[in-house]
Amino acid sequence: MTITRSDQDKSTLPAAAAGQDRPELHKAIEEIVESGFLGVSLRVHDERGEWVGSAGVAELGGTAKPPVNGHARIGSNTKTFTATLVLQLVAEGKIELDTLAADYLPEFGLDRRITVRMLLQHTSGLFNFTGEVYDDGTIVHGIPVPYSTTGKEWVDNRFHTYRPEELVRLALSKPARFEPGTGWSYANTNYVLARLLIEKVTGRSLAEEMQRLILGPLGLSGTVVPNASPEIPAPHAHIYYRFEEDGQHKTIDITRYNPSWVSTGGDMISTTQDLHTFISALVNGKLLPAALLAEMFTPHATGIPNMDYGLGVFVQKTDCGGTVITHNGGNVGSATLMYSTPDGIKTLTAVLNWVDDAAMSIATAFPNAQQKLVNKVFCGKQADPARPAH
């Protein structure tokens, strides 16, 4: 299988990158496709320069490879963009990290112990509006999501528009997971509140502020804040969902859907090039003052081995003992990866696509694929199959 680059990508790559032979990276993405994925596109920047490649197919029944710089729904990488934006507003004096969120958003009746920092850090204890799985295995549903028993309902309503306030109020109608500041639990609710906070203090939309402070300054022309639009710019790979209806198995193309169901928990669209540009600028101090960048990267225990959380980023230990700054984004039928060493010398950005279903059939293959790429790029080795991936 050959590595595919579009003519446009070739024209914008340094000659060394376009001709660079990295058989270990090529082999890694081929093996990921063989493990059950439709397609993978990968971009690596390190001391050897830039490498881009793709494997698999862009759509079912086709032969074209995924575009190496195609647009993709970036899922929870949206949280890193949003946290950066909040911290930029802290730098402008419009927000204070340790001020009560309720002081900015009094209309929701938030627990008056929850600070802005707790929202960005996932230590607020608020219920996740996309549903919670508790330690005893109990599942409490929120809005319909593509998984578990609500998968078909999500499919049928995938063009429905949710308002951010609606998602917050649903979350607040459920019991909190814990007292504010006493634990860690990943919740999209925190970042929808961060969106509303941004819009409240600036008087402008999230999209406008994102353009003013991040997308414009960095020239991220492939990055979109879609709000409720189901469209995704070309080129892009396709994503699919399979389900059973009236005894028949169906597989449908769900590339177009309304992302307002997850809102700022994971609705943005970007490219591997833009994600590389963004994470590189972030770790190199081009978006935040040094003191706020240090706050962002200060790890807080999550209970997940080797993975702590800062403000909108995971601070992860690699198998070879290094540290990477990361925030991946899982979405229905696709995922985006975004990793950087703290000094920005090495970055990895990638998009993976597959046929999804309510049972999350790819759930085992995905962390293995993720670990394989991280070890290849940051450790120069294969993932240890005896070591569980996180």
Automatic annotation (TrEMBL):
List UniProt keywords, sorted A-Z: Carboxypeptidase, Hydrolase, Protease
Q: Which Pfam families match?
A: Beta-lactamase
**Location of the region described as Disordered in the Swiss-Prot/TrEMBL record:** 1-21
**Domain named Beta-lactamase-related: which ranges?**
27-350
Bias (Basic and acidic residues) occurs at 1-10
Q: Which GO terms describe its molecular function?
A: carboxypeptidase activity
* InterPro entries attached to this UniProt entry: AmpC-like (IPR050491), Beta-lactam-related (IPR001466), Beta-lactam/transpept-like (IPR012338)
* Name of the protein in its database record: D-alanyl-D-alanine carboxypeptidase
